[in-house]
């Protein structure tokens, strides 16, 4: 028997590994092990635990590698983003949520709105390394995009909110973001006759914190961005040119899809930043926000672990990483390959992957009636 390699793997993780071993035939045993590690160090937990130790022998890896002979380019790691229509009441709720999303009266000083950090014209973020909140106060992390946020299994980089509704409470109460309170918000919204009429048409009880959140969540859930890559997955293979196809193949063969997969190409697992290299030692000056999931669970094994970000619209959302420390997408690809997968990419390889990532750009469909539009696994 071969040397035994121990990895932390959940039960669902084994099935993901079996799906991913149908990558290119050039993928060798070492890369399979690295892919398993990159997927499973914190992957698949929809809470913060539930992992069991498994032994994966090199003989077993060889057996798994035999499945490559049946490989087809079905891209099972991904899911197609398919918007659909909703009832008229949903359209009205989404419209109300959009107005609230852009309303600075939700902040204590009435100087910032949700849209201040999540601008719909710039990929759903603010193009800043660290967001600036009410009265010019500096936040602690890079603002995640609001686009497709409803597809994430948890919210925030550290996963401290289980849903979009829970997430709204974060910036509302954070002194560096909106520095507000629900009693204050409800009072201001009730003072607006237009809001009163719209809420009463949708909710029997009218204006309340839960109904305000419901409207904003409906709007945020509508911000789905189908892309050229979705049409490619649906069968129109002509939509990706040669460089983009090369980038996609590299994305798969290097193991990027071990974390960036599913309908959102990410957002459905936690992962350590620095699997194959010490990112924080190289960057220096470790802050509390760098501790990631540890700040939520206080478990040592969750230190430096973050929710994997979605790659949809990633070309529009520079700068990158939770700390906003990387200015360009090419540099982000190079650093991810090095720190997460242990590869030093050539410039041409990085540019090919960037070309593929640009096929993930998309905009919300005009009427934004996308709520509950996703089929398949998140």
Largest sheet, spatial ordering of strands: 1-2
Tell me what portion of residues adopts beta-strand conformation.
under 5%
Q: How big is the Rg?
A: 22 Å
Q: What is the architecture of the domain at 88-221 at the second tier of CATH?
A: Orthogonal Bundle
- Morphology call: globular
CATH superfamily heading of the domain at 88-221: Cytochrome c-like domain
What kind of sheet is the major sheet? 2 strands, antiparallel
* Rounded mean pLDDT score: 83
Please count the beta strands (DSSP E, at least 2 residues each).
4
Separate helix tally = 15
The first-level CATH class name of the domain at 88-221: Mainly Alpha
Low-confidence stretches: 1-72, 367-378
Which class of secondary structure composition applies to the elements? mainly alpha
Percent range for helical residues?
25-40%
Which sequence of SSEs, written as H and E, runs from N to C?
EHHEHHHHHHHHHEHHEHH
Distance between the termini: 38 Å
CATH topology of the domain at 88-221: Cytochrome Bc1 Complex, Chain D, domain 2
Please outline what is shown here.
The protein has helices at residues 11-20, 29-40, 58-65, 88-101, 114-117, 164-173, 182-190, 193-202, 209-221, 228-233, 242-254, 279-283, 294-297, 329-341, 347-358; strands at residues 4-9, 52-57, 270-272, 305-307.
Describe it:
The structure is a single chain. The protein has 378 residues and is mainly alpha-helical. 38% of the residues lie in helices and 5% in strands. Among the domains are: 1-72, no CATH class; 88-221, Cytochrome c-like domain (Cytochrome Bc1 Complex, Chain D, domain 2), CATH 1.10.760.10. The protein has helices at residues 11-20, 29-40, 58-65, 88-101, 114-117, 164-173, 182-190, 193-202, 209-221, 228-233, 242-254, 279-283, 294-297, 329-341, 347-358; strands spanning 4-9, 52-57, 270-272, 305-307. It has a two-stranded antiparallel ribbon. The protein has a two-stranded antiparallel sheet with strand order 3-4. Helix 4 runs antiparallel to helix 8 (193-202), helix 4 crosses helix 9 and helix 11 (242-254) packs across helix 15 (347-358). The longest helix is centred in the N-terminal third of the chain and has 14 residues, at 88-101. It is globular and about 60 Å long.
